[in-house]
Amino acid sequence: MIVLNKIYTKTGDDGETALGNGARVAKHSMRVTAYGTVDEANATVGMARLHADPDLDAALARIQNDLFDLGADLCRPDMERDADAEYPPLRMVKAQVDRLESEIDAMNSRLEPLRSFILPGGSALAAHLHLCRTVSRRAERETVELATMETVNPDAVKYLNRLSDWFFVAARVANDDGRADVLWVPGANR
């Protein structure tokens, strides 16, 4: 159990932070950047939840919890040493990816196929979900970049890839099942 009774520690005043295994790294390290963007994505989900109906709110709450799991996964390097850890690190698992895929398929079954790209917007909820999509896509790019330097759980990358797709489809659902999507008109303002 985590107990946070003192919020500031002053240990980061020199530009370093502690990873989940206690190692100190620069705050601008790729690992910190990746899980920091996951945290940012989580905050955008919180904003979207303000506009969601109860069913979507419950799904977004599950995603927020998953994003904390993902941050916990990314802040613990040395996957090969997991078996020796005093407390086994929390890692993303295939079931979390599978759940997103199932939810995407269920939402997408309500929608007509796209015949144009859509602009991020429409309803307030859809606009927030598109912001969630773009921030989660950035988190994915940063996590993939991290994976070129260090070991990263493959399920973490897969989860982020599916998550941005989930937000895209959810945004279409939020736009009256795609009927209120704002279509891109190529060259409209030439």
UniProtKB/TrEMBL annotation:
A Gene Ontology molecular function term of the record: corrinoid adenosyltransferase activity
Top-level class of the enzyme under EC nomenclature: transferase
InterPro entries: CblAdoTrfase-like, CblAdoTrfase-like_sf, PduO-typ
Domain spans labelled Cobalamin adenosyltransferase-like: 7-174
Keyword Secreted: no
Catalyzed chemical reaction(s): 2 cob(II)alamin + reduced [electron-transfer flavoprotein] + 2 ATP = 2 adenosylcob(III)alamin + 2 triphosphate + oxidized [electron-transfer flavoprotein] + 3 H(+); 2 cob(II)yrinate a,c diamide + reduced [electron-transfer flavoprotein] + 2 ATP = 2 adenosylcob(III)yrinate a,c-diamide + 2 triphosphate + oxidized [electron-transfer flavoprotein] + 3 H(+)
Highest taxon listed in the record's lineage: Bacteria
Gene3D superfamilies from the UniProt entry: Cobalamin adenosyltransferase-like
Annotated pathway: Cofactor biosynthesis; adenosylcobalamin biosynthesis; adenosylcobalamin from cob(II)yrinate a,c-diamide: step 2/7
UniProtKB keywords: ATP-binding, Cobalamin biosynthesis, Nucleotide-binding, Transferase
Enzyme Commission number(s): 2.5.1.17
Family, per entry: Belongs to the Cob(I)alamin adenosyltransferase family.
Protein name: Corrinoid adenosyltransferase
